Amino acid sequence: MRRVSIFGATGSIGQNTIDLIARDPDAYDVVALSGGANIAQLAQDARRLGADVAVTAFPEKLYDLRAALAGSGVEAAAGPVALVEAAARPADWVMSSIVGAAGLAPGLEALKQGATLALANKETLVCAGPLVLETAQAHGARLLPVDSEHSAVFQALVGEDMAALERIVITASGGAFRDWPLEDLETATAEQAARHPNWTMGQRITIDSASMFNKAMEVIETKEFFGIEPDRIEVIVHPESMVHALVGFRDGALMAHLGAPDMRHAIGYALHWPERRELPVARLDLAVLGQLNFRAPDEARYPALRLARHVMARGGLSGAVFNAAKERALDHFIAGRIGFLDMARLVEAVLDRFESDPGLIDARLTLDTVTQTDHLARQRVDEAMAKRAG
Ligand code: NAD
Ligand code: MG
């Protein structure tokens, strides 16, 4: 039996992971499940899967979780420290599917235990790529990509010589506002941004798809995961989301990975790797599909892509600044306090301010420096907003 833990079990990726695991219950021994405010879901899954421990991220929910687990034999725990403790429990395979920088600490802890970390939480690599890779290497742990584009690239590279790799092309649906007139974006609402044309995902990543902050983070994730120079990573808008990524080799060959937009493919690939097993995903019928479209991304529409290039060139803790400023700006957008295009403006202003202080940006990358930088960047988003208001 494989020991598995799922961090962010109640979310979109977490539930898809549980869907796969629950189809073959005898194959898995579930160690830890984590969630947030949805205690009923967390408790139900922990009972059903016979988890050793269930952890809610929120300390004030511990009482509810205990009550929901009464008599089940599943331990209840709460808070960020309990999350890291749960990640320290021995497991063979750990799904990292918390949303946001909160996923970094439990992911690092799982790597320290030598677990295979299936990484949906792209923030982990954006905030602390070099630290995460070093930690994995030091502890003989393996990282497997779950983001659909990165899983596609990973699969296209099987058996290939990395020295022959020329470029990586990741596709972007263009999000909810792909075809909106630019001038309407200023007044777009969170509710409108949260309607993705092709994928069903959590609210935050769906809005990040509309702004392409999601794609911007994925470009950085590509650089960190595959160790490729930024100028060899391309983004192409592909409205159908059937081609997830393409890999170009020095002989001119371009290998594409296609599949229905269903995250159970990438999750299942990471779960069964290096084997390929039968997965409950729709098969593509190319004749029905008829055609696939591609177009260059418009940088005026998607300033986040330009900011990602800047972050990759700058390095150091600028990824942690970028991610945290984006997360905070997104909080404000969801709450209706700022406009859609203000998110990129705020992130850029905060990046600029950090850059005038190289002592901060170039500090050594550790969990502590990343966490401190994360807090400071969020604070600076609030300060920039107060300044605009005043
Ligand atoms: P989601 O919002 O549906 O779920 C997020 C999970 O994280 C929930 O279990 C929630 O309880 C938990 N959580 C939220 N805040 C937390 C905190 N502060 N501390 C601890 N746990 C917390 O998100 P999702 O769409 O499943 O995305 C999860 C991650 O996977 C994100 O990093 C996202 O970018 C990435 N991802 C998602 C998809 C997708 O199809 N949904 C695809 C590729 C990558
Ligand atoms: Mg993706």
UniProtKB/TrEMBL annotation:
Positions bound to NADPH: 10-13, 36, 38, 121, 123, 202
Enzyme Commission numbers on file: 1.1.1.267
Domain of life: Bacteria
Keywords per UniProt: Isomerase, Isoprene biosynthesis, Magnesium, Manganese, Metal-binding, NADP, Oxidoreductase
GO terms assigned for molecular function: 1-deoxy-D-xylulose-5-phosphate reductoisomerase activity; isomerase activity; manganese ion binding; NADPH binding
Pathway(s): Isoprenoid biosynthesis; isopentenyl diphosphate biosynthesis via DXP pathway; isopentenyl diphosphate from 1-deoxy-D-xylulose 5-phosphate: step 1/6
Gene3D superfamilies reported in the protein's UniProt record: 1.10.1740.10, NAD(P)-binding Rossmann-like Domain (3.40.50.720)
Catalytic activity, as annotated: 2-C-methyl-D-erythritol 4-phosphate + NADP(+) = 1-deoxy-D-xylulose 5-phosphate + NADPH + H(+)
Alphabetical list of Pfam families matching this protein: DXP_redisom_C, DXP_reductoisom, DXPR_C
Residue intervals of the 1-deoxy-D-xylulose 5-phosphate reductoisomerase C-terminal domain: 143-226
Binding site for Mn(2+): 147, 149, 218
Gene Ontology biological process terms from the UniProt entry: isopentenyl diphosphate biosynthetic process, methylerythritol 4-phosphate pathway involved in terpenoid biosynthetic process
Occurrences of domain DXP reductoisomerase C-terminal (ranges): 258-379
The protein's required cofactors: Mg(2+); Mn(2+)
Every 1-deoxy-D-xylulose 5-phosphate reductoisomerase N-terminal domain range: 4-129
Function: Catalyzes the NADPH-dependent rearrangement and reduction of 1-deoxy-D-xylulose-5-phosphate (DXP) to 2-C-methyl-D-erythritol 4-phosphate (MEP).
HAMAP family: DXP_reductoisom (MF_00183)
Similarity comment text for this entry: Belongs to the DXR family.
Name of the featured protein: 1-deoxy-D-xylulose 5-phosphate reductoisomerase
Organism (species): Ruegeria marina
